[in-house]
Design goal:
Helices cover 63% and strands 0% of the residues. The protein has helices spanning 8-13, 15-35, 40-43, 57-66, 84-112, 122-145, 153-161, 164-186, 195-212.
Length: 228
């Protein structure tokens, strides 16, 4: 495993957008679950924009040193939902919807102000890089969490749309699939192929090209924040 490296510029430019992306992602899960009838996230103190309420210790350390990690999963009890199938899908996609809306909003701002004098100053360049990174993280989180692999949000959506026998089979296989996910997730830290990076890398580049233009800057792939 490579030793962590401290990069002051990354702390300034990368960490705030990443914390914002994960916090809003987990908050969206919590807010939607409460709206759908489950009070658990509210009782757990997850209806807040305080990043400390949404950060997992190990995930936060990985975010700081390796530029990817995860948020603290939002605990929900689907049997409290008014419509189990519909509401489970809504809660699952709420996080990625917020991430993509953030990316789209930032891209619009950057596109409309690309010629503004503020971006030619040193603070302006730092802010530009920060917004660029926020857009990149928003797209990356969206694509990553939509993968239909437990424990990612896409697996919950898949389970809700599959026929009942197939959904039950997926539920039984979930523990084993989570183990596979963990192995694949940490593989790059040990010099093994970055499977998830390969899967989402190309579509992420294409989407950033559409949002920001071909010169979309450095792509920071690997950040994840999900609600189980």
């Amino acid at each position: 495993m490579q030793l962590p490296q401290f990069d002051p510029y990354w702390v300034l430019i990368g960490l705030p957008p990443l914390l914002f992306a994960i916090t809003t992602h987990e908050f969206a899960h919590a807010w939607m679950a409460v709206r759908c009838g489950d009070p658990t996230p509210a009782r757990d103190g997850r209806l807040t924009f305080n990043p400390l309420a949404h950060l997992d210790v190990l995930g936060a350390l990985l975010l700081f040193f390796y530029r990817f990690g995860w948020g603290k999963p939002v605990v929900v009890y689907p049997y409290n939902f008014r419509n189990r199938r519909r509401d489970d899908i809504l809660v699952s996609v709420a996080g990625v919807a917020v991430n993509f809306a953030t990316a789209l909003s930032v891209a619009v701002v950057l596109r409309l102000t690309v010629l503004a004098d503020i971006w030619t100053t040193r603070p302006g360049q730092a802010l530009w890089d920060m917004l660029h990174t926020l857009c990149s993280f928003g797209v990356g989180l969206t694509l990553f969490n939509l993968l239909p692999i437990p424990p990612l949000d896409g697996s919950h959506v898949l389970e809700m749309v599959l026929p009942y026998p197939a959904a039950q089979a997926l539920e039984r296989a979930r523990p084993k699939l989570v183990i596979v996910f963990v192995i694949l997730f940490f593989a790059p830290m040990f010099g093994l192929p970055n499977v998830f990076g390969y899967i989402i890398g190309t579509p992420m580049d294409r989407i950033l090209d559409l949002l920001l233009g071909p010169a979309n800057g450095t792509r920071l792939v690997g950040a994840v924040g999900y609600g189980l």
